Amino acid sequence: MSSTTPGELHGLRVLLVDDEADILLGLRILLAPLGAEIVTAESGRAALDQLGDDGADLVLTDLQMPEMSGTELLAEVKAKWPATEVVILTGFGSIQAAVWCMQNGASQFLTKPFDNDEIRGIVLRLGRQLLAARATELPVGDGTIVAEHPRMRAVLQLVERVARAPVTVLIEGETGTGKEVVAREVHARSNVADRPFLAVNAAALPDTLLESELFGYEKGAFTGADTARRGLFEEARGGTVFLDEVASMSLAFQGKLLRVLEEKVVRRLGSVADAPVEFRLVAATNRDLEELIREGQFREDLFYRLRVVSIRLPPLRERKSDIVPLACHFLGRAATRCLAPGSRTPEFLPSALEALQDHDWPGNVRELENAVQRAVVVAGDRILPHHLGLGAAPWVGVVDEAEDYETEKRRAVERFQREFVERALAACSGNVTHAAERCGLTRAAFQRILRQLDIDRASFASS
Q1: What's the whole-number mean pLDDT along residues 5-9?
Q2: What is the 3-state secondary structure (H, E, C) of 243-261?
Q3: Is 389 left (phi over 0), alpha (psi -120 to 50) or beta?
Q4: Which of 197-201, 220-224, 271-275, 403-407 has the weakest average pLDDT?
């Protein structure tokens, strides 16, 4: 099993479901050191009540239970709380049951007797993924989306104008630019903000699973469909369905989606009748749909249905003025989630802020969030460039500006000097004599560098 930090899943809620009390107790004892909040339920119905009241990030459920089976619980959970991860635990495993569970959203299928390390490893892996995914989401609906750059301010102004109009919206932008964040903001500012926001990634599912996820299915529609299930279009009940990566849909499925948008009806898998639906579709893509139309890979009629209003998100490298405000925003959130209560929030030193500004951010806002979170975990009270893990050599600058060699050389030397002496000062708690010795410099030479770079050694003194 991968190495574990005690309590590292703090902030997650895990629901254990089994009709045998001793198994619930054993699982609780096994998983408690991971730090997640552990709650239990002795039946599928009790589990649904728990989820309805307080939700859960991860569900571990037995397969064979009276009244409601684990497969039925899985179907209900993925229909109502699609972001919740579900692990199936059973003493009556079969290949058929395992295949059905995995096809219908289960993250893992394990047979009894369990290996304790395996269960802990699975919960740890899923928990880390959930915490990482949660860290990439900006708060929405309360004015906290960071948008200092004029292009992002224009995006939010457009969001404000279109949110209350029940039109389809297409959000375009590179991976990591925050397309789902903007989609949630559209919903939060709409007239149906009190209704569900349901998200699905088209690239993550083949056509058959995507169709069952969106359209639903009747009991007996396929092997393992033990109960009927409404799709997300029905579950929305007038709310918003966010369909990400629409460019990945096959042409055949594109035609089915077009019919739903035009007629506002769905036909569940295995049904012969249409059911009316009411929802607002917000779609997103990181690819050029017009180019795909020319290549015959995307339907032109669906494109115009999706792009009633288009919102294009600029990549982070094109809105440099947002980098530092975003980093400071992420810093506070990461400190709250990653550090012990009462811990001091680290601060960015000037060299770290300069490194943030100089980086090209191919992963956009998501990459920035991850870099800040890493820095909070590995740094002490002060964040230096190497804590960010950006992997850039100190001489790499913004070459697109086509500065001359001497100018770039001077900047590279200054960056190197700043980080070098700041690291020494941080290691020596601001003691100039010790820091100079650490660098192999005289005290006078070290102080001269501090004056040249306007570095205040007092800011490195221990609190």
Answers
A1: 67
A2: EECHHHCCHHHHHHHHHHH
A3: left
A4: 403-407
Give pLDDT, residue 70.
86
Instruction: Report the candidate in 159, 156, 140, 141 with the shortest Cα–Cα distance to residue 309.
Output: 159
Residue 116: is its pLDDT beyond 90?
no
Rounded CA-CA distance 281/244 in Å is 10
Six token digits for residue 384: 């230096």
Half-sphere exposure of 292 (CA within 13 A, CB side): 19
Same domain, 51 and 68: yes
pLDDT of the residue at 186:
94
Q: Give the DSSP letter string of 334-353.
A: HHHHHSPTTPPPPEE-HHHH
Q: Which band of pLDDT confidence, cut at 50, 70 and 90, is reported for residue 94?
A: low
% of the chain residues with pLDDT over 90: 32
User: Can you tell me the distance from the alpha carbon of 285 to that of 287, in angstroms, rounded to the nearest whole number?
Assistant: 5
Residue whose entry in the numeric block shows the structure tokens 């579950």: 235
Which strands sit side by side in the sheet containing 240-244, from one edge to the other? 197-201, 240-244, 280-285, 169-172, 309-312
Quick check: helix, strand or coil at residue 395? coil
The last residue of a domain, from among 288, 314, 340? 314
Q: How far apart are CA 155 and CA 166, in angstroms?
A: 18
If one counts every other C-beta atom within 10 angstroms of the C-beta of residue 52, the result is 10
Residue 317 confidence class, pLDDT cut points 50, 70, 90 = very high
Please say if the pLDDT value at position 378 is more than 90: no
Q: Is residue 85 part of a domain?
A: yes
Centre a 10 Å sphere on the Cβ of residue 194 and count the other Cβ atoms it contains.
8
Range of the domain at 354: 318-460
User: Domain with 160 in it: what CATH number?
Assistant: 3.40.50.300
- As beta bridge partners, residue 41 has 17
Q: Which of 314, 336, 368 is the last residue of a domain?
A: 314
Q: How far apart are CA 274 and CA 272, in angstroms?
A: 7
Q: What phi, psi does 108 have (nearest 5°)? A: -160, 150
The alpha carbon dihedral of 294, 296, 301, 306 has a sign of negative
According to the model, what pLDDT value does residue 144 have?
Answer: 55
